Amino acid sequence: MSNKENSVGIGLANFWVALGFMTVAVLLGVYQVAERSGFFPSLESPTLYFASVSTHGVLMGFVLTTFFIMGFGYYTATTSLKMPIPGKGFAWFGFWLAIAGTLTAAVPLLTGNASVLYTMYPPLAAHPAFYIGATMLVVGSWFWCIEMIWMMLRWKKAHPGEAVPLVHFGNTANAIMWLWTTIGVGSEALFQLIPWSLGLLETIDVGLARTLFSWTLHAIVYFWLFPAYILLYTIMPKVIGGKLFSDEMGRIAFVMLLVFSVPIGFHHLYMDPFQEAGWKFLHMFGTFMVALPTLFTGFTVIASMEIAGRLRGGKGLFGWISALPWKEPVMVASGAAMLLLTFGGFGGIINASYSLNVMVHNTQWVTGHFHLIFGGTTVILYFAAAYHMFPRMLGRKLHSRSMAVVQLWLWFIGMLVLTLPWHVMGLLGQPRRISSAPYDDPLVQQWNIHEAAMIVGGVILFISTVMLLWNLYKTHSGPAQELQMEYAEAIHPAPRVPQLLNGFAFWNVVIGIYLIASYGYPIAQFFLNTTYGATPWGV
Amino acid sequence: MGDLTPEEEKQILESSPKGTLTLLVIFAIASTLGWLYMYFGMFLTHGPVN
Prior knowledge:
The complex is a heterodimer. By secondary structure, chain A is an all-alpha fold. Helices cover 71% and strands 0% of the residues of chain A. Chain A has a single domain (3-528), classed as Cytochrome C Oxidase, Chain A, CATH 1.20.210. Chain A contains 19 helices and no strands. Chain B is mainly α. Helices cover 70% and strands 0% of the residues of chain B. The longest helix of chain B is centred in the middle third of the chain and has 26 residues, at 18-43. Chain B starts with 5 loop residues before the first helix and ends in a 7-residue tail after the last helix. The interface between A and B is medium-sized, with 33 and 27 residues.
């Protein structure tokens, strides 16, 4: 069995699980925009709506992402390192554990017993099966993390002194970041939510729980984004006929993402009372720091596009843009993702600004922001990865390249039509996470045009999803075509790089110190300070 | 790409990405102006929602 074949089965299994659950989530999304618009009274049901929102969020944010990232990691690891997955049974066990966790959590979600808005923010409480299932999903993903780290160590041992291929350097950075990231929500689930939901604890400290969840809540976004960035650095330049502007810049960006993304979660707690303003202010600076690797990525990726455009004959300051291969799905998705990242990034700067956050906190603006970053930038690049990898994994021609291009443009348009009105509605005062509003109020009447737009956006996204699934499904039975999985070369290839950009031991120490500095006292205070009437030790 | 001589290709690979830098400068200016508008134009003048 070749290295490629070694990862095809587990890669495709992960991809199809991710895409299958994503389809359910998109369907629920269409229902949600119709329900909350208030235009269809027969659809209105807060109970069903909140169950649907919770399921939609969990499927998109936890299930689609985790499985897709695992599939992407396994396939890119074997094809870039040119070595098989070690301990294949170990990897499959993690996959099946994650499946079992997803199904366990799905039962209370679909029966309305886990309508906690896809979060782990008490006092909202779910059935224990939800917390146990979610924990199993996360633990299943840890098997993938261990595999990624294991493969990097084995490769380095076999290639002493050589630079780990950038693709797998990114995969491993993401795996390590995910392990650090899940400490927060894992502790919350293990010591608070599961015992509480089982009735073993009568009360829990909501402040501690929300602080622990904030540990995970922002870094998870970078867990989602990592494969998207890896594609932009290592696959896109090759596909469009160019070279990567800088291999080292990619390594620096991945290390910065790893270090900066975890200890900044308090910008999700700006309006919560149990953390002091000073800590929030410090986390605000940390949040702005994490914009740096994204800016580095923006520069390196666009510069790589510019090189490709000029090599294809593009002239002048911007003539290279039109010279790019816009009939290539990876190019379309990359261009769309960068544009959506521009809009979403701007919204993120507003959210992260401590004072400005007051204006948009818990409004529909926030929903618009994270849909742009996740549904826009991240997921559209997942689609590009699928279009690129499925033919190579299956040894078959993509069913329809033109359909793929149309599908990606539809997704891009649908996402803008859906999310830009949400930003406006947020500024007009619409709260997020509402199922309905009194639509005769003059304030609320301002929302109507935007409510109509979001339904159109939701329908466009659903049509786009159907096209994606059909195209990938038909690729399984398409004509045979042997394609190699190739990665972009840098303009100046770096066979050897400084150890700090070729391993993570030092950076793990830095993360540990940074986490203690930013979360140490804010967590310790729940155990050190006496809160009258609360249980000792805060749990 | 096939129409380029090796010298032209080398020149492109070693040139500064002027278009990229210009795009990023435009983005930085637009973001700064947007932030200032959000702060001074919307936030400070916002008042309560009623």
